[in-house]
Amino acid sequence: MRTSTIMIDLKGPTLDTAQAAMTRRKRLFLLLAVLSAALGVVAAESPPQKAVWHLPLRDVVHPVAADYLERRLEEADRAGAEAVVIELDTPGGLGASMHEITTDMLATRTPVVVYVSPRGAQAASAGFFLLMASDVAAMAPDTVTGAAAAVGSEGQDLPETLGKKIEQDSLARIRGLAEARGRNATLAEEAISKARSFTAKEALEAKLIELLADDFDALLRDLDGRRIEKRPGEVRVLATREAPVHRVPMTTFERLLSILVNPTIAFLLLSLGGTALVVELYNPGAILPGVLGAIFLVLAFYGLSVMPVNATGVALIALALLFFIAEIKVTSFGLLSVAGVVCLVLGGLMLIETEEPALKVSRWAIGSLSLIVLASVAVLSIAVYTSHRRQVATGKEGLIGQIGTARGALSPRGKVFIQGEIWNAEAEDPVGEGESVEVVDVRDLKLRVRRTTASTF
């Protein structure tokens, strides 16, 4: 039995702040959705009458997933769907998004079935809450659910007072959802209080779920004839055996947004976008780095706008970029680069303010990007240092050591031909016409030369 713990972030801003943030996010998402529809990304399709809507959710529970399910549940209600089946596979997610989805599931008039599938899938943490909020809970063989205990971002126990507060809130929520559906509320609470996980067979025997179905077709056969009471006194008998299936996965646009709200992707876009703008500032007119940097930053800001971002993490990443810029200008023997890498690592670790491990920036990505940036800065620093040590090739210093030809006898004054130009010159010793000379000094536009055997070619 799997006992790995994946927590759910149930602490957060105040209710008014959270509602305001949610309203702004919904407006932004609606605007982007309208734009995508205008561009033909979202395809309009009339669903069949009395169809079973199939909504796959194989991702972390985040704001984009919440908006996707909210819109589809509303559309299913308007279309008079027979039932909505959410095919679920998730390691967990944000408590705010989970609460939004469960609220929408409870509010819809259409029966909602949550089906943990395919084999090997899980409905952990926030996913367990979605399973308990469904009108019918079903799982495929070899799937697991539960493990909804609250832990810290590194898997550690939370402080006693905070941990108890979050746990009691979670227990009350899961108990209410389980009791409303006639499920085993005691074992549902153990998924939180004891971080307990259940296999599909164990969940069925414990009456945490109603069905164990091998595949989607088997699920529809088992659902047929089942009585659902969405509202007191409103009993609905499902007719799913012969019902058409209307599959509504995320659109291309929604999948893109889902990728952007991945904390690791947002971190990489933020770091690379800032680096690209720095390159543009050092190479005005290059255009491509500036364009790519601006695009990366806009995409990163969208991803961060729908996640609980820690401003300190963003500030540390910005400070890292400043240190990398200063390393090129100031001789610090690599200390500024090291400070920049430290800030980049700390910024990545602190970027997302949540205890949900599934929503943390990948440590592998942080380490890889830090090494790449450190190597790049080292290469640039070496190039700058080498250029400073290179012999000057222009001006007075650029003439010293150059080889030329005497245009006439130098005894000691005369003319020499050097670098395509004729100069007045004075020789240390007499030089014959056509002999090679080397510049040893430049004084008042007059060269001091000496005879040499080196060739001018």
Walkthrough of the structure:
- The structure is a single chain.
- The chain is α/β, with parallel strands linked by helices.
- The chain is built from 15 helices and 16 strands.
- Strand 9 and strand 10 form a beta hairpin.
- The longest helix is centred in the C-terminal third of the chain and has 27 residues.
- The radius of gyration is 35 Å and the shape is elongated.
- The chain starts with 14 loop residues before the first helix and ends in a 6-residue tail after the last strand.
- The N terminus is likely disordered.
Give a quick summary of the entry.
With 457 residues, this protein is α/β, with parallel strands linked by helices. Helices cover 48% and strands 16% of the residues. Strands 8-5-3-2-1-11 form a six-stranded parallel sheet, with helices on both faces. A five-stranded mixed barrel has the order 12-13-14-16-15.
SSE map:
Blueprint: H1 15-38, E1 52-57, H2 63-79, E2 83-88, H3 95-107, E3 112-116, E4 122-124, H4 126-133, E5 136-139, E6 144-146, H5 160-180, H6 185-193, E7 197-199, H7 200-205, E8 211-212, H8 216-223, E9 227-231, E10 234-237, E11 245-247, H9 252-260, H10 263-282, H11 288-305, H12 311-329, H13 335-350, H14 363-389, H15 395-399, E12 403-406, E13 413-418, E14 421-427, E15 436-443, E16 446-451
Parallel strand pairs: 1-2, 1-11, 2-3, 3-5, 4-6, 5-8, 14-16
Antiparallel strand pairs: 6-7, 9-10, 12-13, 12-15, 13-14, 15-16
Helix pairs in contact: 2-3, 3-4, 5-6, 10-11, 10-12, 12-13, 13-14
